[in-house]
Amino acid sequence: MAVKVFMSDIKYFYNDLVEAIRSPGIWWRFAWLDIRLQYRRTFLGPFWLTLSFLLSGIALSIVYSQLLGIDDEVFFAYLLGGLSIWAFLSAIVMEGCTTFFANAGMILERRLPLTIYALRLVSRNFITFCHNLIAVVLVFIYFHVALTPWTLMVIPAFVVLQLNAIWFSILFGIISTRYRDLQQLVTVLMTLTFFVTPIFWRKEMLGTRGIIADVNPFYHMIEIVRSPMLGHAPPLTSWVVVAAITVVGMLVTFFVGSKYLRRLAYWL
Q1: CA torsion sign, 171 to 20 to 126 to 148?
Q2: Is residue 79 a contact partner of residue 61, using CB atoms and an 8 Å limit?
Q3: Which of the residues 64, 83, 90, 207 has the least number of beta carbons within 10 Å of its own beta carbon?
Q4: What sign for the dihedral angle of Cα 231, 237, 243, 249?
Q5: What is the Cα–Cα distance from 36 to 149, expressed in whole angstroms?
Q6: Contact assessment for residue 220 and residue 237, using Cβ atoms and an 8 Å cutoff
């Protein structure tokens, strides 16, 4: 009987996810609406995202290049590339905990696939990343960052990050709906992680303590995208780590989603 119930739960989660993926008109439209509502009645609209990101990058690069004694041009491109990826990842992690209870009203009132709210969140942050990417491209052009065949690796690398963003939003969205303290814990941990992730500094600066970066999954997620951005080959180790995280994360999400997605409405 238990096996039969679990198989039914698996089918429910699978059908929910497939139905959500097949409805891009809904989650993509919701994502655009979120961005438009945030910047409605403003002159620049969503391009305030680009401007604020660019100004923040300029200020941080000037300060930290002096503190660390690094060449401005090289450091600016390195920092802005890493910062754009971190902004995407950190938004996914912190907002992912609110995937479902932030949409409690819609979930209780409308019959839509539950995983569609995770796709909405990921799409919204993808749009934000694209706006930030405009600033990154402008900086790379200004500082003559060379394009190489490795630059094309940015595309598959970011696709992998999107897959991780989806499973994270579903998994932590479910857990946080049941245990609301998780959101607070994740916020605290992400603040700490920001300072121990090589965004403003390079891993080589740690010397013999480079393991601090090696055990940090966010370093590897950033590096598989940032290295190709700068025209370099992404580290194979980072690809192996990210691939392992992706596979394990998706399997755990499928298990947890199959077991608890049905109960989600009762926890809201």
Answers
A1: positive
A2: yes
A3: 207
A4: negative
A5: 36
A6: yes
CA distance 212 to 27: 37
Q: Which of 165-174, 179-188, 189-198, 227-236 has the highest mean pLDDT?
A: 165-174
- DSSP characters over 108-140: HHS---TTHHHHHHHHHHHHHHHHHHHHHHHHH
| CB 135, CB 54: distance < 8 Å | yes
**Most confident range, picked from 98-102, 138-142, 196-200, 224-228:** 224-228
50 Cβ partners below 8 Å, 6+ apart?
A: 131, 132, 134, 135
CB 149 within 8 A of CB 155: no
Which token pair is 100? Answer: 């479902």
Per residue in 87-119, pLDDT tens? 899 999 999 999 998 888 888 888 889 999 999
Count other Cβ atoms within 10 Å, centred on residue 128.
Answer: 22
